[in-house]
Amino acid sequence: MSYGTRVQAISQVTDRKPLPSKIPQRLEALWATDVFTLSKMQASLPKDVFKSVKNTILTGGKLDVSIASAVAAAMKDWATSKGALYYAHVFYPMTNATAEKHDGFISVQSDGSVITEFTGKVLVQGEPDGSSFPNGGLRSTFEARGYTAWDVTSPAYVMETDNGVTLCIPTVFISWTGEALDKKTPLLRSISSMSKAATRVLKLLGHTEVAPVNSSCGAEQEYFLVDAHFAHSRPDLLLTGRTLFGKPAAKGQQFDDHYFGAIPERVQVFMQEVEERMYRLGIPAKTRHNEVAPGQFEIAPFFEAANVASDHQQLIMTLLKSTAKKHGFVCLLHEKPFAGINGSGKHVNWSVGNATQGNLLDPGDTPHANMQFLLFCGAVIRGVHKYGALLRAVVATASNDHRLGANEAPPAIISVYLGSQLEKVFDQISQGRIEGSDAPGLMDLGVDTLPVFPKDPGDRNRTSPFAFTGNRFEFRAVGSNQSVSGPLVAMNTILADSLTWVADNLESRMKAGEDLNTAAQGVLKEIMDKHRNVIFGGNGYSPEWHKMAVEERGLANLRTTADALPVLKADYIEELFARMGVLTPVELESRFDVYAEQYLLAIEVEAKLVVSMAKTIIYPAAVRYLSELSLAIANAAAIGIEMDKESAQTVSNLIKLLMDGVSKLSEATAKDDFDSIEEHMQYSAQTIRPLMDKVREYADTLEGEVADNFWPLPTYQEMLFVK
Questions:
Q1: What is the pTM of this model?
Q2: Which domains does the chain have, with CATH numbers?
Q3: CB 98 within 8 A of CB 184
Q4: Which string of DSSP letters, residue by residue, matches 679-700?
Q5: Phi and psi for 300 in degrees, rounded to 5?
Q6: pLDDT in tens, 103-139
Q7: How many secondary structure helices (H) and strands (E) does the chain include?
């Protein structure tokens, strides 16, 4: 790596022409062409088989395994007509990744000939082994048997790449002893648990016909694009997804000129291909735009059923990364790839509803009179207050720690923002009366040629980690590189717990003689009396709030993953998941072990790379510059010219500080005698990371002192602004 490499990279980037932009096909012609949809099933399955499958998908009815052979045959015929030679059971292990094992449709006959074959047994169940996936002690490494099982509620699809076409079948992944080894199984359980509790409440409210209740999810995916020539010259970007070194450019995001600006031509061509691939896979891409930081963008799909949305979110991340390669980019999904500018999140818009009562978090025009909405919203408030630490734990990763708590993302303190309209309604409830609510107004801009349009009754709060935004809650603390499954599991489970409590209390009060309205108001008042401390509508970034939240309101401020993850081992969290039938104590403990190990490994890799890059890239460059500078000073002195030596002394001092810092970091990373994994995590958070930051501080200062033609690494200016 050298300055010449940098210059060559800049030249290649500036000379690159965007790939030709195709005229987009009509959405109707693209939509779900690569998905084995209900309509395709209906056209290819016997009526009774289709009816059975449809019932399972739409109502959550029990899967009739006897129909699997007919479905498998139809699925195979459709996939092979699209060019597929292989199929894969796709599953989601606890690593946030997507896993798949490809098997051919081939079956060898006794005479040596072959036929294409895909049986019902193979569709329903697979055995991918998967013994090398982290399992948190659920099984020994020598115990290799693991099963995948078909999730009929998430549609099969074909994935087309330059290497061919594969039929992909979403599945769960479980151990031989039946424990969940994946992200999907707990999500499906949490949806079922929440649906049962919600159905109880709805029936108590007088509804006689209640369809299964599901949660919905729309996740706003933020990401960075860096030209591959730059990224491939940065070992830190390649191995960790973020820059471990780099002096911020003179210009960053302070002018706000990138946010919602014109999308660069090359980026828009990339986005268009991503969206076309999404549409073919039935993923409803809705929004695209430049984000706040230079080089940062966002894509947001329309909301879908949570299980399908979770699968689609994994596909979106895959499509972003694979399509970026075709366009000469590297897509960075790390939460904080560049210091000094905004990082990336994945705002999860979450709601609950069904086919008979609709969106249960829709307040309507008169929320004060909408008892159904108030009970469901109150249940969310109760759940977030009781289990706020759990919500913090499910977004805890080494990479997200760089983002949470900075003035760009929600704080690590979990609070609920309701907006002025709903906050007034719940204030009335706490006082034992419900009098009314603010009506939506009209926005008149005072210009006849501009329209008068409706004004929402409440503003938004970008500093809140859990904000009500009209007909849903937006969980803004989720990291850009995370699976949305974990946060969805937590939200569904705490809502199931709260709705169970609501139903129990409604029943108890009504048995004691209260009418429904009085009982409901009593339940809501009790919620507000016990849980109003979690509601906050002010500036979540302010130090005053951080102090008030902890000291006066009793909310947790779990600043790091090392602080947050142990919440998963708390007795009340274990009891919650077990009682709701979402995770057994053993399964929950395994998740703590896996996530803790992932945290430690992430920091270990970064620390090793900091040492390596400092010693083999930055130190040699600085020494070469110091040598040339010293020679120039000596040569000038030889002919009677006295040059300023301060710059050389500064560089010399920084080199010494850099290498002293490297030595301390190397020594610290050698420690391995920890009494517990919790102690190891705290050591990584409180000792290793600060030492890494110190080495970076000296290296970044050196970057500002060393002549540009000596600096070997692509700079922030180049990576963020040269497209």
A1: 0.94
A2: 31-181 (3.10.20.70), 191-597 (3.30.590.10)
A3: no
A4: HHHHHIIIIIHHHHHHHHHHHH
A5: -135, 125
A6: 999 887 777 776 778 999 999 988 876 666 666 666 5
A7: 25, 20
